[in-house]
Amino acid sequence: MDAPETLGKYKVESVLGKGAMGVVYLATDPDIERRVAIKTLLVKHGDDEDLLERFRREAKAAGALNHPNVVTIYDYGEDDGTPYIVMELISGSDLQKVARRRERVTVNESFRIIAQVLDALAYFHDAGVIHRDIKPANIVLLGNGTVKVTDFGIARQENSDLTATGMVLGTPSYMSPEQFIGEKLDGRSDLFSVAVVLYELLTGKQPFKGDNVPTIMYQVSHEEAAPPTKFNARLPGAIDNVMRKALAKKPDERYPDAQSFAAALKEVADGFGDREDGTFFSGTTLIAGGSDSSGPANEGATVIKPAGGKRAPLIIGVVVATVIVIAAWFAMSDTPEEFGTVAILSEPDKASVWLDGKSVGETPLELKLPSGAHVLTLRKQNFQDQEVSVDVEANAINDIYLPLTSK
Question: Which structural domains are found in the chain, ordered by start?
């Protein structure tokens, strides 16, 4: 699919990514010369009124919010039958991508991440908006340590009747018991999902896991999660009681709001101190570990810190209908100033990589390139080509992740 020259008043520069339901473009607002990301709904889906209404609702719900831990929505429009949302262009790495890169997240950093998510949710819930799909892929870590909550594709106002009774929306491993059976939800459902993410960060395991949705549904609805300290003995014992309450089956037995959950976690974190014990992401799960861990799980692992070395704003990540512009940057001390390093990952891997029209290898691949603009193309049999523009900054490692779409 060729990128249009414009969408509404916005000048389209390139395709950032494609998902099953839409495309995200890098564009510029000509009035104020601000670069933005524009998320569109594929035209073939445009005649699905429910999907179109959900797309409009995402713009309405998120556009009404203004919070440092929320991706900002600037505008909504339709161009020749193509609906689009104009949003903040962010550079960071969502927790799912962090998992795939096997980066290390300490216990204290886990608390800091979740505290920001809860701050955002407190704001959402006070405005009457439920997110409904809190999960690692929708939690983005920026280079300065800020967390952004993304993807309002199934968010809705608490008093909205748009979602039919019995319609299940969400990601099974992170859904609340009431979400599975289609009950009317409030903010406590989001808090259950946050607790699942935190449990995974702290222990290296999902509290409810199965090979199919019915198995996960049964565990979420009927089985108690094991105490986190069972899997990570370095955790403070007080975390067990906090997680037990946060993962309660009945909403009335959970924390009543995000502020209460955050206060309980702060008390645990304050008692834990400044220790750097943590967990390592590996694949789609986590491996419990710490600063003295050894073995393949922590080879090349990088501790996420609120601040780091020189940053290089880059590109791209796609998660179904929503796309997050992602990049990870780490300081380099031995690379000439006029060069930068680009680390390229794809899903699936072993995609051929073409740089500025020349074949340079297969993913995963690391290249040292002159700073400046380059065109990167990934090709793999039975998958659509992915072409993106890369602005390589000198003296930085630019980490690019590109999921491929089947033909």
Answer: 6-87 (3.30.200.20), 94-298 (1.10.510.10), 317-403 (2.60.40)
